[in-house]
Amino acid sequence: MKNNKLCKSCSGRLSEFNDEEIIADGFCPYCVDEKGNLKNYGDILQMMIEYIEQEHVEIDKKERLSTAQKWLREGEVWKDKFITDDIIIDRIREGDLERIKVHKHKKEGFSHSCGECMYYQNCKDSLKSKKKWLSKMKLKYGNCANVLYHDQNLVGYIQYAPKKEFPKLEELEAKSTDTGDWYISCIYIDDIVSKEDKKSFTLLLIKHVILDLKKRKAKAAQISAPIKEGIISSTPFNWGFYEKIGFVEIGHDEEYVVGKLNLN
User: Fold this and answer.
1) Which residues partner with 156 through β-bridges?
2) N or C: which terminus of the chain carries fewer CB neighbours within 10 A?
3) Cα gap 51→56, rounded to integer Å
4) Do residues 75 and 47 make contact, with C-beta atoms less than 8 angstroms apart?
5) What does pTM read for this prediction?
6) Torsion angle of the four alpha carbons 162, 165, 167, 170, in this order, in degrees rounded to the nearest 10
7) Residue 3 — very low, low, confident or very high, per pLDDT cuts 50/70/90?
8) Which pLDDT tens digit goes with each residue over 21-73?
9) Domain match, 42 and 169 both
């Protein structure tokens, strides 16, 4: 008897594959890696575009991306992750960190990748260390990082955890880690997007984290931001941006403000 079910990811017909090729929980072999884990959104989207190019030549080249996104919105995995027709927010998956580009700060000669940054963890920056830390956080608390894709590009990343998981904060703030608050330690927005999109993407990621933290019964979220432009920061905007969306100042120095948002 033919399998009439659809792949939970790409919504393709599973009847096109042998029973041995279908992953037990309902995925086609193209949507999972060699370990059986679901691939990230960018890789699956690219795979679907290539499939359309080969098997559906009748679809105009300009419509291939939107067609692939439409099919993904029909799948169980991605439909609830679409914010708009061309934007999704998803938990961090294998291969996502490698898509985060090196960010060049205005300070001459300084650049780094948020995908490797371990500043608040007091560790040497490396992709291996970042992956290890994220895996540890996932085991302890569940997912602690999200990505935002716009069309085919990963353009946003946000990372958060209980403040005690960032020992560097003890050096920056007195008794900072002695709290039940969670800390948003990094917000990355790719420089390829416009200033207005940077604002909207940042807001979308923060709102996503706030909803997540409320589900976890967290008491409050904290963030730090520079007082003015030109100061190296792990967040893309000055303090005024975060103040407007509800964060309240709880401390500051000559360059940075620490803000808190109560979640109760």
Assistant:
1) 148, 189
2) N
3) 8
4) no
5) 0.92
6) 20
7) low
8) 777 678 999 999 988 899 999 999 999 999 999 999 999 999 999 999 999 99
9) no
